[in-house]
Amino acid sequence: MAENFPRAFVCGFPVAHSRSPLIHNHWLRAYGIAGSYERREVAPETFPEFIRTVREEGFAGCNVTIPHKEAAFSLLEQKDESAEAIGAANTLWFEDGRLCGSNTDAYGFAANLDERAPGWDRGGVATVLGAGGAARAIVHALQTRGFRDIRIVNRTVWRAEELCHHFRGGTSAHGWEAMAELLADTSLLVNTTSLGMDGGSSYDLPLDPLPEKAVVTDIVYIPLETPLLKAAAQRGLTTVDGLGMLLHQAVPGFERWFGRRPEVTEDLRALVIEDM
Ligand code: ATR
């Protein structure tokens, strides 16, 4: 017998590390909603067929994580402005039989900063470390929030140049050696690279030139206090860890599939930290 409560899931390859089930099942319990949220491991070559099957099985939708975000985007029959701008989708749903999608990473990034560092978008000058998929979502969020001078710094400069080309005006590409000069008038510094993740390879950033009012954030959240955030805190700067971005990016999907806008609470944050 078909279940008539809303069902959703996260798919990735691998997917065991995903904290999305923990987050969504916490909200389902907290709001007493009869629904389910599962985890599905899907190999890249079977992803399009998998999405077709899911539609027939009556799922409300799903989250998509690495490496499927670009493939999901290419399958969309309807996309919102964030998916369009970023060229990748992480939240899918079905509407009148059509596959629809959004990219909620940009929303999650901005919502986390709104909560933890109100006024973070006032300065309008951002330096973004990294030029991969994650940086795309961040640059889109920054443009949406009115940043008109976004410096993209990457080890491989041509990738930063490609990103600038994609986003057009208000962005510039740089190598790491330009950092000290770029930081002198930076109001927001964002790390989108995997540097510092899992306590892995670190980096030596000259944070001294950053103005006193600068906000420093890292989208890496394991460890919560990355080497970058530690160095920034030692300098007395406002720092924001990346866990809130993960929690907030889940909000729009939950609301769409399960019909209630969930709250990002300290309880939820503590639950995820306990699981790390
Ligand atoms: P994601 O989609 O998560 O952004 P990605 O596309 O692999 O992942 O991008 C990873 C980013 O981290 C890139 O900007 C990468 O720099 P390169 O483009 O030069 O590879 C950056 N990165 C990873 N390891 C790095 C390292 N050891 N030093 C400097 N940058 C690094």
UniProtKB/TrEMBL annotation:
It catalyses: shikimate + NADP(+) = 3-dehydroshikimate + NADPH + H(+). Residues 242-270 form the SDH C-terminal domain. Shikimate binds at S18, R19, S20, T65, N90, D105, Y221, Q249. Keywords: Amino-acid biosynthesis, Aromatic amino acid biosynthesis, NADP, Oxidoreductase. The gene is aroE. This is Shikimate dehydrogenase (NADP(+)). Residues 126-194 form the Quinate/shikimate 5-dehydrogenase/glutamyl-tRNA reductase domain. The active site is at K69. SUPFAM superfamilies: Aminoacid dehydrogenase-like, N-terminal domain, NAD(P)-binding Rossmann-fold domains. Its EC number is 1.1.1.25. Belongs to the shikimate dehydrogenase family. It comes from Chelativorans composti. Residues 10-92 form the Shikimate dehydrogenase substrate binding N-terminal domain. NADP(+) binds at E81, G130, A131, G132, G133, A134, N154, R155, T156, V157, W158, R159, I219, G242. Pathway: Metabolic intermediate biosynthesis; chorismate biosynthesis; chorismate from D-erythrose 4-phosphate and phosphoenolpyruvate: step 4/7. It is an enzyme of class 1 (oxidoreductase). It holds the Pfam family Shikimate_DH. Involved in the biosynthesis of the chorismate, which leads to the biosynthesis of aromatic amino acids. Catalyzes the reversible NADPH linked reduction of 3-dehydroshikimate (DHSA) to yield shikimate (SA). GO terms for molecular function: shikimate 3-dehydrogenase (NADP+) activity. Homodimer.
